[in-house]
Amino acid sequence: MHRVVRENLLTLYAAVEEGGSGAALPAFVRKELEGYVACGLLSRGFALMQCEGCKQSRLVAFSCKKRGFCPSCCGRRMAQTAANLIDHVLPPVPLRQLVLTMPFELRRRLAYDGPLLGAVSRVFMRSVLEWYRRRMEAEGAMDGRSGAVLVIQRCSSDLRLNPHIHAVLLDGAFTEGADGELSFHALPRLRTEELADVLQIVRVLILRLLVRRGVVQGEPDLTVVDDDLAEREPALAQLASAAVLGQPPAGPALRRRNPIEIALRGRPGITVASPLSVRELGFSLHAATRAGAEDERAREALIKYILRPPVAHERLRILPNDLVRLELKKPWSDGTTAVEMDPLSLLSRLCAAVPPPRRHTVIYAGVLGAASKWRSRIRPAPEPPETLPAPAPLPPLAPLPDPPSPTRRSRYWPWLELLARTWGIDRGTCESCGGKMKLHALVQDSQSIARILHHLGEPTEAPTLAAARGPPYWKSRVFRQKPRVQEELFDT
Fold first, then answer.
1. Which residues contact 318 (CB under 8 A, 6 or more apart)?
2. Could you tell me the pTM of the whole model?
3. In the chain, domain spans
4. What SS3 class is residue 11?
């Protein structure tokens, strides 16, 4: 992927500016793409790790710290967030994953309308938590409360723009006894019929919210009202609209596929795709994944799954005909296992995968929310480690104020600890003598970088971006054979 971005980034800029009447991509998208090109390059600077025993050195390149699509940086964020959730937030109870997918017509609007996506997420979570409360009352757990962690994912497995909600719920409810103690009651079983009821409630409430906010209008066929994204960012709006359906310039993708029903149209009615997976009028809800209370590996794997990066290096391959092959995590219903597209089409989808700045992607609800009075009782803070008693201090001249109590339990995980916890890789131990590796220096000066890399025989210059190609910008004949491409904004 780094090679695809490096060799086609300037060409994408040229195609966008020429096809979009001079409009360029927004600054946050360009910053994400250019930051990824510089991620992991030793020539940009590095940390110098050194063994305390034999003085053997190891170099660790700086990362871009982006949150759009960089597999390395998103993978690190995934591992750290999962570790903090498992260790400090989620109680040792069964967990269930719910995945809510929205209709095609709503996806571009939700991808760039943060307040609207937040409101949809709250409606979804309130509906599910209220259903859990009623369902657990039928089991005898009166006034029960559950909680969830929500993660907003922006892409499908083929990198099409698809903002959808992954929620990990406490599969049951907490109740407070007469003695003030909290106890957890697990949901005995979730049936597909019950999940269908939840989806119908969620769909009706979300559509009611969208009508009230003027996002959709018209009865019985609902029509999505255009927002002002096309006026503010015309180039991004065009790429995002194309990335939703995989059409030019973000496609086409070569694959076998069945016709897709137009969302928000047709007759109401639930369609059961598989056990605990239902669809209705473009909305879908999946709840077949569950992790037991005692299965720590499954619990952490579930959290990592909802926090995963949109694409991994091993899933991409450059073909001899200049197409890019993207392997799918799971085969589709029509048997498709991979899609092939032009490199610029892949970059167009990566642009749509970048979240706008200052948007939360992890949300806490119910008893796990920050405002919940039960959160600290469900997962108390760990006791501080025992230490030797300190010698009696000298009497101060004035009374010192009490130190503030800590308000955050999550912490920053060092790189070495994350490697050991997530992948079982011990990079904190020297391979030669078994000594401990410690941070020796952060090398950022260009002359020092060049001197050390030259001594080690590593490249001292960063790979340069390939010059922009002239039209036709798309290298793939498959893309240029499409007759309707000439009608698109980006003329090939």
1. 3, 4, 324, 325, 343
2. 0.84
3. 2-47+61-254+263-378+464-487
4. helix
